[in-house]
Amino acid sequence: MKTKFIFPCLLLLTVATAQLRQQPALKGTIYGIVVGHGEPAKGLGLTAEPLGVALAAVLPQAKTNDKGEYRFENLPWRGRYTVYANDEEAGYSDISTGPAGNSHPAEVEITPEHPKAEFNISLPPKAGFIEIHLTNRRNGAAISGLRVAVTPLEKPEPPLFTMSCYSDHVILVPPDTNLLLHVKSDGFREWDESIGTGKPLNVPSGSRLTLDVQLDPSN
After folding, report:
1. For residue 2, what pLDDT is reported?
2. What is the pTM of this model?
3. What sign for the dihedral angle of Cα 171, 172, 174, 175?
4. pLDDT in tens, the chain (219 residues)
5. How many other β-carbons are positioned within 10 Å of the β-carbon of residue 71?
6. Domain residues of the chain, as ranges?
7. Is the dihedral of CA 75, 77, 81, 84 positive or negative?
8. Of 23, 80, 90, 160, which shows the fewest CB atoms inside 10 Å?
9. What is the C-alpha to C-alpha distance for residues 119 and 2, in angstroms, rounded to an integer?
10. CATH (one of 1.10.8.60, 3.40.350.10, 2.60.40.10, 3.30.70.3290) for 23-122
11. Do residues 48 and 60 make contact, with C-beta atoms less than 8 angstroms apart?
């Protein structure tokens, strides 16, 4: 089943990338100002992401200057774009406040006739931060690998996102939102507080929630 699911995705990615390469070269530019709480957002990391197309490429990155200004130049793909804050230390990510958590992000279009576009950004609230201290319940040893799934309480299927990472990685979640959290790790049973529907939580914007999680070995 997994092989049948993955193959069409890889095929779609290859076809979409090939189609983009066949298009005439385009050197697009997106520029604008980022404002948060009425003030210019200084030194904030941003990502420009094409919409409606699969890409096998690293997405363009930029940073704002002291005036909150940014500029993406020499963008190689025509079409619709969104630009979003992607700076986890500042409290923003594609999962918590970017297009991965927003089905209708603001957008701008780059075309051969209009290769430059202005896109000003008003920052949403910062994410909530979750820090998980993960240990083996049997011997107290730290567990290095972490797998989490986060779903909205009102609509738990499908998950808002799933993530595999080191257990010391701080997880960003949509702020002030009723969520359900599942915590797992390879070789261990799921966290007893998240088995079933998940662990309810709500993390205010910019706040940090620390969870001490003990897992039982699966054997």
Report:
1. 36
2. 0.79
3. positive
4. 333 333 333 334 344 444 444 455 668 999 999 999 889 999 999 999 998 877 777 889 999 999 999 999 999 888 999 999 999 999 999 887 777 776 688 999 999 999 999 999 999 999 999 999 999 999 999 999 999 999 999 887 888 899 999 999 999 999 999 999 999 999 999 999 999 999 999 999 999 999 999 999 998
5. 12
6. 23-122, 128-215
7. negative
8. 23
9. 40
10. 2.60.40.10
11. yes
Common-topology check for domains 23-122 and 128-215: yes
Q: Which of 136, 39, 123 is nearest to 87 (CA)?
A: 123
Tokens representing 83? 């630009």
User: Cα Rg for the chain, rounded, in angstroms?
Assistant: 20
Contact assessment for residue 174 and residue 204, using Cβ atoms and an 8 Å cutoff? no
Cβ of 74: how many Cβ atoms within 10 Å?
10
As a three-state string, the secondary structure of the chain is CHHHHHHHHHHHHHHHHHHHHHCCCCCEEEEEEEEECCEECCCCEEEEEECCCCCCCCCCEEECCCCCEEEEEEECCCEEEEEEECEHHHCECCCCCCHHHCCCCCCEEECCCCCEEECCEECCCCCEEEEEEEEECCCCCECCEEEEEEEECCCCCCCCEEEEEECCCCEEECCCCCEEEEEECCCECCCCCCCCCCEEECCCCCCEEEEEEEECECC
- The token pair at 108 is 């701008």
CATH number of 128-215: 2.60.40.2190
